């Protein structure tokens, strides 16, 4: 009964948060249809800067008021699961989730998945309080709620379940697989009431080729090195998060700077979904790929370091896709291949090494693009290479690196 209730609540919360996300974007950039990037480009340079400045003001004032209203401490899913026995404050968590999707909808360079993960885990935690569950079952239900929230908004039921097991619980266990699968599938089905049921990214046909397979072997270690640098950058940003009164003004300053960078590079705004789609369609030239590969991680880390709350999933995928697309352009000069395949392989490899979750990363990329046959072997090869490098360098997960020091 609790698993069923968690799946339903996580699905409803995820769908509602995505409606709020799109509403914030439509109001900020005055558009009704089309992609977020197209609306940002039509809005013009001054509006981009003003929109990000407003998002920074909302972030700083909103979180300061939320902390004043709910008291000290902060909801982090990973910290709650590994340090706080699965306890998450409901008001603080839902308030943070709402603020997070609003600023991402306004163009903040952060992921949208943090909000549904947090809401799903907090609702599961409240159900655990009602049912008086012990610590082990409370942690399990909260992790299932978090995975179900993400599964709902990305339409990835199997990937959401694996994220629950491999990332949030740290173990692939048959005993835990059933509740994780059930909550993710239920939440995804509930989300279909308001959310699209198709793939998140449109991928052209990618035939299996020797070129893509050899490319996957070679790009894996480089993707692992990029993931290591990305995780370390997030650790530095988290350690530099402002204290005291500074969270009131830090998001305003940082977000305004990101808005200024978005004048020449509007692709920086948002979570990175449009960047990924552009790389899959080979619509970015090499200079733009280089610039975005440098600027997108910096913009995301700076936004997180300013004190704002947001996710890292899509920015991580976007960073890997940029690496794959850029390396693929050089590779095709010597051995032609499908551009979309290079981007997906790079994205999966960086995601796996950054999350320290190879199985979940592979399944997530296959579900996000709804393809399996031609990409399975290249994905496995690239992810293996990336994981070997990241493990040799003793790299933690991008989620565990943000845990507060004990």
TrEMBL record:
Keywords: Chloride, Chloride channel, Ion channel, Ion transport, Membrane, Transmembrane, Transmembrane helix, Transport. The keyword Transmembrane helix applies. Its main location: membrane. It is found in: Membrane. Gene3D superfamilies: Clc chloride channel. GO terms for cellular component: chloride channel complex. InterPro entries: Cl-channel_core, ClC, ClC-type_chloride_channel. PANTHER family: CHLORIDE CHANNEL PROTEIN CLC-E. GO terms for molecular function: chloride channel activity. Signal peptide: none annotated. It is a multi-pass membrane protein. It comes from the Bacteria. The chain crosses the membrane at residues 49-69, 90-110, 140-164, 176-195, 207-233, 245-263, 275-295, 307-328, 340-365. Pfam families: Voltage_CLC (PF00654). This is Chloride channel protein.
């Amino acid at each position: 009964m609790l698993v069923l209730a968690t799946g339903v609540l996580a699905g409803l919360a995820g769908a509602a948060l995505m409606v709020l996300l799109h509403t914030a974007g439509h109001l900020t950039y005055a558009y009704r249809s089309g992609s977020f990037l197209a609306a940002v480009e039509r809005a013009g340079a001054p509006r981009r800067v003003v929109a990000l400045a407003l998002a920074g003001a909302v972030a700083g004032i909103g979180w300061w008021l939320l902390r004043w209203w709910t008291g000290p401490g902060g909801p982090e899913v990973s910290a709650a699961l590994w340090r706080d026995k699965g306890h998450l404050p409901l008001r603080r968590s839902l308030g943070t989730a709402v603020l997070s999707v609003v600023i991402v909808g306004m163009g903040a360079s952060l992921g949208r998945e943090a909000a549904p993960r947090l809401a799903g885990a907090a609702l599961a935690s409240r159900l655990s309080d009602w049912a008086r569950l012990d610590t082990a079952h409370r942690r399990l239900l909260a992790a299932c709620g978090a995975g179900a929230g993400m599964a709902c908004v990305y339409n990835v039921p199997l990937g959401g379940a694996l994220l629950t097991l491999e990332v949030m619980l740290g173990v692939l266990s048959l005993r835990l697989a059933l509740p994780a699968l059930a909550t993710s599938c239920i939440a995804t089905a509930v989300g279909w009431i308001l959310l699209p049921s198709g793939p998140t990214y449109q991928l052209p046909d990618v035939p299996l080729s020797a070129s893509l397979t050899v490319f996957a072997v070679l790009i894996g270690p480089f993707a692992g090195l990029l993931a290591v640098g990305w995780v370390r950058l997030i650790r530095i940003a988290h350690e530099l998060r402002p204290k005291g009164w500074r969270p009131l003004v830090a998001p305003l300053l940082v977000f305004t700077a990101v808005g200024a960078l978005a004048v020449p590079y509007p692709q920086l705004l948002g979570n990175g979904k449009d960047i990924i789609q552009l790389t899959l369609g080979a619509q970015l030239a090499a200079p733009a790929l280089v610039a975005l590969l440098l600027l997108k991680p910096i913009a995301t880390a700076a936004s997180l370091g300013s004190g704002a709350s947001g996710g890292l999933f899509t920015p991580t995928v976007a960073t890997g896709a940029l690496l794959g697309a850029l390396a693929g352009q050089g590779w095709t000069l010597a051995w032609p291949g499908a551009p979309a395949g290079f981007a997906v392989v790079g994205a999966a490899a960086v995601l796996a090494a950054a999350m320290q979750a190879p199985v979940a990363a592979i399944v997530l990329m296959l579900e996000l693009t709804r393809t399996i046959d031609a990409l399975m072997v290249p994905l496995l090869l690239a992810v293996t290479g990336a994981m070997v490098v990241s493990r040799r360098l003793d790299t933690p997960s991008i989620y565990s690196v943000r845990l507060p020091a004990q």
